[in-house]
Amino acid sequence: MSDGQWWTYLQAQLEQRGWKPAHLARAAGVSESRISDWRKRGSPPTIPNARAVAEALGEPLVPLLAGAGLLKANEARQSLAAYSVRELLDEIDTRFGELTSRVPDANVKHPTFDRGNSLQLVADSPGTEPMRVQQEREWLSEAERPDEPGPDTGA
């Protein structure tokens, strides 16, 4: 890592968020003098400090270290073969849990055939045929459509 690359990365992150170094110090629980060392001396962070900064910025640790030049791209990204199936499933479970925690707990309506559900067969109107019947009719090609009644059909 070149001198100051960590600070260059941090400075871009701070500017993106509209933060001052003092705000990062409070959010990460890192002393302002430590942040000053990163800026003036170009010194890299310790792993605990990098972890605290990543958490404060809401960034995953490994991509943060790679973006700051503390890890090479090939060190930061391992092939999936490097992980056990259990590790991959645990990661999927963790990410799914994080995503579902952001979904509101309000009652969610799903389209059903119940007449009381306002989402019943979306776009169906009372008094008209169901949308699925209309769609099935549209799917028929010209060759599959029945002939119109008229003099040629004997009707």
From TrEMBL:
The biased composition feature labelled Basic and acidic residues covers: 134-148
Q: Where is the HTH cro/C1-type domain?
A: 10-64
Residues in coiled coil: none
The entry's protein name is Helix-turn-helix transcriptional regulator
- Residues of the region (Disordered) are 116-155
| Pfam families in the record | HTH_3 (PF01381)
Q: Which residues form the signal peptide?
A: none
> InterPro entries from the entry?
Cro/C1-type_HTH (IPR001387), Lambda_DNA-bd_dom_sf (IPR010982)
